[in-house]
């Protein structure tokens, strides 16, 4: 096997459309990251899930983050407040005040871990890929192309940020290959197609249209890749990443 890098960061996103939390390790299975994207925000009037990349009224979601708590359910962290557990009866009021319209939290259908959640169930807007890989090499390439001194990886919501050298957008070459991260094999399935979420402002990051423009111009609107674990296991910061079997 050829060593191609090491794990620099790992992230999980308990609630879709909001920021996630960085961790020291992730538990993986063929279904994806344990605790990842099992819940989502929705409009309580229409029952439509949040769509911050399409509807400006949902952009305030980017000022929230989700975390795993000691309680059975994750929590949502608000600016200067939180985290508030998803089953806290006060949460809908805080969400409605934050967004300016009636917003609730729901479990995604097909992801129920317990019948005791006491939350409504909604269908996610799209099928979530089990794992999202991004490299520091691609971030550096984007910085060169845009002239932006530092492009924050949070714009792209990776599960695993891999520190690696190499050619521009090196992940493109991984599609169809098997990678080994620590002791877990993953199959890379496709490039990650990007949307307006990459350019909008969020805590500590200003709006930056040139990020998406450069991705569209230089890499057919793609950055990073999706992958599926071939078995179960854990990966940790510092794990080596290998190509081939």
Structure description:
This protein has about 240 residues and is mainly beta. The protein has 2 domains: about 150 residues, M1 Pyruvate Kinase, Domain 3; about 80 residues, no CATH class. The chain contains 3 helices and 17 strands. β11, α2 and β12 form a beta-alpha-beta unit. The longest helix has 11 residues.
Helix and strand layout, with pairings?
Layout: E1 2-12, E2 21-23, E3 25-29, E4 32-33, E5 39-43, E6 65-67, E7 75-78, E8 81-85, H1 91-99, E9 103-108, E10 121-122, E11 131-135, H2 136-146, E12 160-163, E13 178-181, E14 184-193, H3 209-219, E15 222-229, E16 233-236, E17 240-243
Parallel strand pairs: 9-10, 11-12
Antiparallel strand pairs: 1-2, 1-12, 1-17, 3-4, 3-16, 5-9, 6-7, 7-8, 11-15, 13-14, 13-17, 14-15
The CATH homologous superfamily of the largest domain is called PK beta-barrel domain-like
Quaternary structure: single chain
> Helix content range of the residues, please?
10-25%
Radius of gyration: 18 Å
Give me the number of helical elements. 3
Order of helices and strands: EEEEEEEEHEEEHEEEHEEE
Question: What is the first-to-last residue Cα distance?
Answer: 6 Å
Structural category: mainly beta
Residue fraction in strands: 25-35%
Please count the beta strands (DSSP E, at least 2 residues each): 17
What would CATH call the architecture of the largest domain?
A: Beta Barrel
In the CATH hierarchy, what is the class of the largest domain? Mainly Beta
For this structure, the CATH topology of the largest domain is M1 Pyruvate Kinase, Domain 3
Report the major sheet: 7 strands, mixed, barrel
**Uncertain residue ranges:** none
**Strand order in the sheet with the most strands:** 1-12-11-15-14-13-17
């Amino acid at each position: 096997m050829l060593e191609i890098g090491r794990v620099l960061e790992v992230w999980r996103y308990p609630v879709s459309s909001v920021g996630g939390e960085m961790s020291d390790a992730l538990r993986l299975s063929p279904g994806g990251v344990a605790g990842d994207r099992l819940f989502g925000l929705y409009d309580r009037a229409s029952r439509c899930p949040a769509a911050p990349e399409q509807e400006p009224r949902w952009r305030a979601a980017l000022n929230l983050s989700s975390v795993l708590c000691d309680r059975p359910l994750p929590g949502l962290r608000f600016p200067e407040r939180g985290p508030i557990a998803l089953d806290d009866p006060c949460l809908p009021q805080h969400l409605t005040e934050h967004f300016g319209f009636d917003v609730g939290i729901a479990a995604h259908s097909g992801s129920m871990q317990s019948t005791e959640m006491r939350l409504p169930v909604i269908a996610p807007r799209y099928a979530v890929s089990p794992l999202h890989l991004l490299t520091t090499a691609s971030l550096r390439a984007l910085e060169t192309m845009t002239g932006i001194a530092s492009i924050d990886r949070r714009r792209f919501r990776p599960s695993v940020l891999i520190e690696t050298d190499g050619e521009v957008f090196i992940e493109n070459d991984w599609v169809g290959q098997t990678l080994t991260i620590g002791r877990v094999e993953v199959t890379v399935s496709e490039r990650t197609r990007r949307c307006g979420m990459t350019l909008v402002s969020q805590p500590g990051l200003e709006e930056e249209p040139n990020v998406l423009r450069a991705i569209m111009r230089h890499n057919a609107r793609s950055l990073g890749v999706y992958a599926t674990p071939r078995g179960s296991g854990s990966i940790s910061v510092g794990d080596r990443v290998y190509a081939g079997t």
